[in-house]
Amino acid sequence: MIYLDNAATTKPRQDVLDTFLKVNESLYFNPNSPHKAGIQAEQLLQQSKDQIKELFKLEKDFDIVFTSGATESNNIAIKGIAYKKRAFANVIITSVLEHPSVLEVVRSLENEGFDIKYVNVTKDGQIDLEHLKSLMSDKVALVTCMQVNNIMGQIQPIEAVAKIVHQYPKAHLHVDAVQAIGKIALDFKSADTMSLSGHKFHGLKGQGLLFVRNLHQIEPIVHGGGQEYGLRSGTVNLPIDIAIVKALKVAVKESAQLYEKLSEFNQEIIQFLNEYSGVKVNSPSGASPHILNVGFPGVKGEVLVNAFSKYDIMLSTTSACSSKKASLNEVLLAMDIPKTQIEGSIRISMGANTTTDDIRNFKEKFNLVYEEVKELLK
Ligand code: PMP
């Protein structure tokens, strides 16, 4: 099987699985317990947070909250900040590029009376910084902007966004960096909060992180025993938390090397596809190399995914979270991609396990799929 759906999820590393199992066997204690074993668990929890801070050289005012994934991290940050600031600022700025775990949260806040504004998107999938400037005011509580898009791979200029946002002292910048970690350098310095999900960088499903600058900026949305600085109550899952740190260390250590490898594969695939008439690369240049979105105008994306799947090539249409929805993908629409090209788009996404052989195999099978659909191409 050739797995080219790494933006949906990645294979867990064996040493991450081993760590998870080992900590479960030997350190299953509750870090909140007052006895010696509980204290040992609490110390390990703190150490793993310190290791993350050290890994990124995070400034002192940052803290780490362990969560179950980026969906939870995005919910805790976006709702928590909105509620905290609602008395004096009720505008939230986002864009249609965001993942549903951001967009659906802001939609639910809209129902609660928050004023949601969407920044325009340029043809190459960047948020329009001039438009962002024009939307900013003292009423803005939060701007939420992803670092790398999960469907097209384009990278947002987080530093430039932060410069605009931070001219307004009440405004907070939340960054969903799920698709950036391990692929490009994380811009956590510009962010006030940042979300990550373990299973996107060869960790496990059900483990996530939220980096928080100034914990008091967030009102808790999960109430209970007060764990994780009161922001994520519930018994701490030490094995899963220690395992994500393991995955994170490797992802950061290997990211420059991986970038090189995936850039080569990305260019190789683009050059190969350019030889096929009717096939269009949708991802803009300068996108993160692990995501390549390709359009086949006239053919349905689902037909292509099934055709590749028949040859044991696993890839997806848009994203795993939205591929079952019938509507046209909003990210591609915002980038002015023609309707037929959107309907016929597939996403090829690579990861640390992608090999030269996988790319060769993909190209071979691509020929077969192309033969099947070429009559339909417009
Ligand atoms: N943000 C982005 C950009 C993503 O790609 C994903 C996963 N598809 C998420 C958030 C949500 O992550 P999870 O499903 O692990 O909670």
Automatic annotation (TrEMBL):
Keyword Hydrolase listed: no
PANTHER family, per the entry: CYSTEINE DESULFURASE ISCS 2-RELATED, CYSTEINE DESULFURYLASE FAMILY MEMBER
Origin species: Staphylococcus ureilyticus (Staphylococcus cohnii subsp. urealyticus)
SUPFAM superfamilies with a match to the protein in the record: PLP-dependent transferases
The name this protein goes by in its record: Aminotransferase
Pfam families: Aminotran_5
Cofactor(s) of this protein: pyridoxal 5'-phosphate
Keywords on record: Aminotransferase, Pyridoxal phosphate, Transferase
Aminotransferase class V domain mapped to chain residues: 2-362
Family annotation (InterPro entries): Aminotrans_V_dom (IPR000192), Cysteine_dSase (IPR016454), PyrdxlP-dep_Trfase (IPR015424), PyrdxlP-dep_Trfase_major (IPR015421), PyrdxlP-dep_Trfase_small (IPR015422)
Molecular function terms from GO: transaminase activity
Source organism superkingdom: Bacteria
